[in-house]
Specification:
This protein is α+β, with helices and mostly antiparallel strands and 316 residues long. It folds into three domains: 69 residues; 104 residues; 126 residues, no CATH class. Helices cover 28% and strands 30% of the residues. An eight-stranded antiparallel beta sheet has the order 8-13-14-15-9-10-11-12. Strands 1-2-6-7-5-4-3 form a seven-stranded mixed beta sheet. α1 crosses α6 and α2 packs antiparallel against α6. The longest helix is centred in the first third of the chain and has 21 residues. It is rod-shaped.
Length: 316
């Protein structure tokens, strides 16, 4: 039954939209709107200037206005004394790369818990001496090469790109995919395969009838199978051109008579609605194409044996 729920829901959404807009749009319009909405955050993110992943050694080649917004990674050591941090003063830190290169950072908060920061590289002078003076005994006791010419003013120390929230984009994309699949499948949901081999069960005898339902897909609403009851009867043949079967609905408003030819074909499968499913057979012959729902698998086997069985070979 789950296979039928998505197309049925899509059908109801389509009807609601077309009713709202006077027959215009439907599910295709909704799919386009969802995809357009999902693309807006991607377009905005793509149009923004992004920080450049940079190393301290790369800064020694110079910094332009376009390349001054950088993302840097390394171990961060706070140089400003705890007392000055507590007073709310600007915090100076040292970002140390694994190569021993280092750059002075300025920020509004302590960054010791981070490994990655973004910010603007600004020109400065004598930053190695300044860092040593500010840090005092907090300056790392190791061989470091602190870049003199630049200082990094941190502007985004908390949210790296991998932590951006793309959940709304995923929700809109999945909703569009569900609608697209349901719209593509259509309703009712019918899966058929060619029935090529005769079935080894007793076929209908002459004048014997088989109770079933004659499906008209355009009349189905998807909640349950609404096809009218009908009967398929095997007819007596007095000549090679006589009809072999008749299909009559229970209210007798229509009777269809047909015979099996060598070019006739049958397909067998299953139909799903939201509340039920049924075995189905589709018969094709000259001028006819009928979809029949059977009450049981045994009835389907008997119908196929009657239409494709070995004793059908006596007709021309």
């Amino acid at each position: 039954m789950l296979l039928a729920i998505d197309p049925w829901l899509v059908l109801q959404v389509d009807r609601g939209i077309r009713r709202l807009f006077g027959g215009f749009g439907g599910v295709p319009l909704l799919i386009v709107l969802l995809l357009a909405s999902a693309s807006v955050p991607l377009i905005i993110e793509g149009s923004r200037q992004q920080p450049i992943s940079e190393s301290i050694d790369g800064l020694r080649d110079g910094v332009s206005g376009l390349s001054s917004w950088v993302r840097m990674d390394g171990r961060i050591v706070t140089l400003t004394s705890p007392d000055n941090v507590a007073r709310g003063q600007q915090v100076q830190s040292l970002l140390i790369e694994s190569t021993g290169d280092a750059i002075v950072l300025t920020s509004d908060r302590v960054l010791d818990n981070l490994r990655e920061v973004t910010g603007r590289v600004n020109n400065s002078a004598n930053m190695a001496e300044t860092a040593s003076s500010i840090g005092g005994d907090r300056f790392p006791d190791e061989e470091l090469d602190v870049i003199d010419r630049y200082v990094l003013t941190v502007d985004d120390p908390i949210v790296p790109p991998d932590d951006r929230n793309w959940l709304p984009v995923w929700i809109l994309g999945v909703a569009a995919a569900v609608l697209l699949i349901g719209h593509w499948m259509g309703y009712p949901v019918v899966r058929l395969r060619p029935a090529l081999e005769p079935y080894r069960v007793r076929p209908l005898a002459v004048s014997e009838a088989l109770a079933l339902r004659a499906i008209e897909p355009e009349l189905e609403d998807g909640t349950r199978l609404r096809a009218p009851r009908a009967e398929l009867r095997r007819l007596e043949r007095r000549g090679p051109d006589d009809p072999w079967f008749s299909l009559t609905t229970t209210d007798h408003d229509r009777t269809l008579a047909f015979r099996r030819h060598r070019w006739s074909s049958a397909s067998s499968g299953r139909l799903w609605t939201v509340t039920e499913s049924a075995p189905v057979v589709q018969l094709r012959d000259w001028g006819i194409e009928v979809l029949l729902a059977l009450d049981s698998e045994a009835d389907r086997q008997q119908l196929l044996a009657s239409f494709l069985g070995a004793d059908a070979g006596d007709d021309a």
